[in-house]
Please model this.
Amino acid sequence: MLRPTNAEPVTYRIRVQGALDNSQTARITGLQVDTEAGEGAPTITTLTGALRDEAELAGVLDRLYVLGLPLISVEREEPDQAAPAASREVDEPDRLT
Model:
């Protein structure tokens, strides 16, 4: 379902495999970027923040794709809920199904 552009922004949490360097982080403005690197586990970067609509979300996802970072999940948090409303895990990092 598409949200009108004049609707309230929605908070998204996007997880990708890999890390962003400072220049890449600067290209994705308005989102908090947290990177977790565990011993023996892949590095996971989480981008969290409010996006105006799904077009803006698509732009962020496109930038991450161009950077070659495999998508792990996208979670959308509804304004009236404390927990994420939806989460979608991706089985294959190079395609969404």
Q: What stands out?
A: The chain is about 20% helix and 35% strand. Residues 20-35+51-68 form one domain.
